């Protein structure tokens, strides 16, 4: 292993490491007798990476997933999907989950589908992270994701003739090799879903691991090569039984005229204890080193109006902390001109099947205001902090369903969950109050 699994990397967030026990041979000696203990219920863990190249008006998404590892499940799968220019699509997958490895304390993972020879395979199968040179020399197809380096050769197909396994679509090839410079993780490297994300309370869990970063390197997509330097990069992950039964998601970090501006917003129906569910949404904005987060468990809320396809209007407000704010972000496209790409996601009963629709070509506008208390209510201060920042490369998605009509809602937390999630904010206020009393007594 060439990467120390105990090293903390710049901008590392909670939950960057894996949440499953790999069945890869390199782990069996360390955790013999434990690697098959993992869940009787369904489990998946997925990683999403987005690269935007504004000069080419092109985006790539690298979507990796492991399902039911270390079990006898018929849905067990190691998979990578790549979304490319013009909503093109490529997938490569294998039922053999022993090829998939992942580190426990940082975002480092990989799966080598094929080696160049059987002799190489015997030599390499007990290894996890390789040097760049070693990986390129020995791996015919697969991927290796390290905290600041992404490598991959995807020899797959478009899935048009069936599922995700070999020979079920028109063949295609993608090769990627680029380094990543992190700019910000998530706020002050915090859990996207609050502190309860460390426990099996919600299904599924979600963590933004890089809200903003810059990538340098190359991608080859079906014989066309894209070389790039310091281009916008984004990363997140999910884990749990499956993705939400219904959800929306938006992201952009390539706004015109802004070098350090990133927005991520999402919401969906998630499971909570005792067989219940809740509709939850949030928005997070990073702007020149300041983090603006509107979440329902911290004296804030989020409203959304998401159409069946082509319109996402999201508003968030936070009145906690030292900088109360309002935010509004809108993503729009013509559904006839840009129908988006329908692609696969892990589902509870059928595994990896078509389950969501995605685009990288939405027109985005983002506005952000400070709020001030006027004695009766909070009002927006003018001029705005951000006044209609725009981009033509907004990432937007809807998934699950049903999507028979527009989904218009406000985040609603179950009272018990809200109380638990707000505990850190109450403790923080108590500490500040105690510090003020100590300072007064000293003076």
TrEMBL record:
<feature type="region of interest" description="Disordered">
    <location>
        <begin position="1"/>
        <end position="20"/>
    </location>
</feature>
<protein>
    <recommendedName>
        <fullName>Tocopherol cyclase</fullName>
    </recommendedName>
</protein>
<dbReference type="Pfam" id="PF14249">
    <property type="entry name" value="Tocopherol_cycl"/>
</dbReference>
<dbReference type="InterPro" id="IPR025893">
    <property type="entry name" value="Tocopherol_cyclase"/>
</dbReference>
<dbReference type="GO" id="GO:0009976">
    <property type="term" value="F:tocopherol cyclase activity"/>
</dbReference>
């Amino acid at each position: 292993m060439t990467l120390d699994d105990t090293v903390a990397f710049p901008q590392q967030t909670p939950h960057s490491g894996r949440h499953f026990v790999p069945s890869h041979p390199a782990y069996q000696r360390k955790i013999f007798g434990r690697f098959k203990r993992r869940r009787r219920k369904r489990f998946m863990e997925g990683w999403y990476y987005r690269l935007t190249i504004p000069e080419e008006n092109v985006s790539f998404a690298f979507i990796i997933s492991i399902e039911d590892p270390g079990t006898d499940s018929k849905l067990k799968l190691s998979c990578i999907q790549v979304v490319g220019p013009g909503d093109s699509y490529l997938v490569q997958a294998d039922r053999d989950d022993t090829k998939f490895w992942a580190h426990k304390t940082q975002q480092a993972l990989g799966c080598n589908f094929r080696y160049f020879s059987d002799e190489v395979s015997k030599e390499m199968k007990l290894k996890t992270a390789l040097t760049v040179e070693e990986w390129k020399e020995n791996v015919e197809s697969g991927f290796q994701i390290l905290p600041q380096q992404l490598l991959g050769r995807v020899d797959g197909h478009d899935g048009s003739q069936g599922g995700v396994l070999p020979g079920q679509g028109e063949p295609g090839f993608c090769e990627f090799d680029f380094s990543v410079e992190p700019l910000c993780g998530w706020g002050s490297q915090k859990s996207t879903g609050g502190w309860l994300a460390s426990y099996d309370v919600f299904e599924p869990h979600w963590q933004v691991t890089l809200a903003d970063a810059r990538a340098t390197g190359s991608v080859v997509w079906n014989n066309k090569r894209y070389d790039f330097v310091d281009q916008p990069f984004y990363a997140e992950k999910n884990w749990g039984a499956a993705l939400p039964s219904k959800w929306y998601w938006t992201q952009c970090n390539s706004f015109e005229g802004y070098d350090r501006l990133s927005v991520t917003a999402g919401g969906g129906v998630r499971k909570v204890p005792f067989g219940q569910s809740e509709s939850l949404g949030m928005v997070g904005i990073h702007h020149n080193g300041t983090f603006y987060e509107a979440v329902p468990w911290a004296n804030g809320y989020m409203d959304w109006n998401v159409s069946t396809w082509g319109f996402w209007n999201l508003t968030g407000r936070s009145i906690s902390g030292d900088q109360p704010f309002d935010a509004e972000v809108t993503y729009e496209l013509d559904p006839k001109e840009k129908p988006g790409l329908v692609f696969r996601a892990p589902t509870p009963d059928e595994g990896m099947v078509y389950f969501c629709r995605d685009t990288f070509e939405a027109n985005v506008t983002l506005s952000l205001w400070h709020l001030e208390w006027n004695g009766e209510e909070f009002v927006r201060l003018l001029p705005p902090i951000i006044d209609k920042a725009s981009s033509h490369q907004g990432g937007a998605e809807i998934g699950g369903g049903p999507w028979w009509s527009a989904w218009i809602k406000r985040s609603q937390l179950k009272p018990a969950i809200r109380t638990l999630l707000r505990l850190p904010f109450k403790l923080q206020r108590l500490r500040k109050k105690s510090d003020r009393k100590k300072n007064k007594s000293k003076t």
